[in-house]
Amino acid sequence: MGFFSRLFAPAADASPAPSGWTDLPEGEASALVLPDPEAAHLLAQFDIEAAIVGHKRWLPWLGTLLQGQRDERLRAEVVDDAGSSELGHWLQGAGRAALGHFPAFEMLLRRHGFFHQQAAAFIRHIEAGERAQAEQAYKACQHASRQVVLLLRELQKGLKTPVVLSKK
Predict the structure, then answer these.
(1) Which residues contact 51 (CB under 8 A, 6 or more apart)?
(2) What is the dihedral of CA 125, 127, 132, 136, to 10 degrees?
(3) What domains can be seen in the chain, in order of their start residue?
């Protein structure tokens, strides 16, 4: 089951969605969209595109371990701490302060933490010589990384494109 199908699973009784299921309550905006002044301040404070690029560097770096290369900086006890990365540091500090009240922020924080847990598990399997388990953990890293990037891109779009709700 895919990431979004778990989030938006059909009703257990297979009943169709109500006709107004896409309507937001009056006066509310998307969970990923900030008002203009807040968005401008956040974008000035944190470069989301740079965070995406930085996060994407993790997979090739971890992949070098599958090829038999060693890197002393890739230690499981350090990688396991999601706050040790630049993105994690921001998410747990200024990002939480600016976005913590948005429901989607918690999802981003959890997916990022899961990525780091899987990366640490991957390193432990590599160090133990458990190739099959390492490959499984690496696949979990890839999946979690894609989710983190997707959520960051959605956040980026929400910050750049304010939603205007029309009254019906």
Answers:
(1) 86, 87, 90, 152
(2) 40
(3) 31-160 (1.20.120.30)
pLDDT digits 0-9 by tens, 72-87: 899 999 999 999 898 9
What predicted TM-score, i.e. pTM, was given to this entire model? 0.70
Tell me the C-alpha distance between 82 and 114, whole Å. Answer: 8
135 burial (CB, 10 Å; 0-12 / 13-18 / 19+) is middle
The three-state secondary structure class of 126 is: helix
φ/ψ of residue 15, rounded to 5: -75, 150
- 117 is written with which tokens? 């847990």
Percent of the chain with pLDDT over 70: 67
Structure tokens at 131: 């190739």
Other CB atoms within a 10 A radius of the CB of residue 55 amount to 19
Write the DSSP string, 40-90: HHHHHH--HHHHHHHHHTHHHHHHHHHTT---TT--HHHHT-GGGSHHHHH
Average pLDDT over every residue of 103-116 = 91
Return d(Cα 163, Cα 147) in angstroms, integer.
23
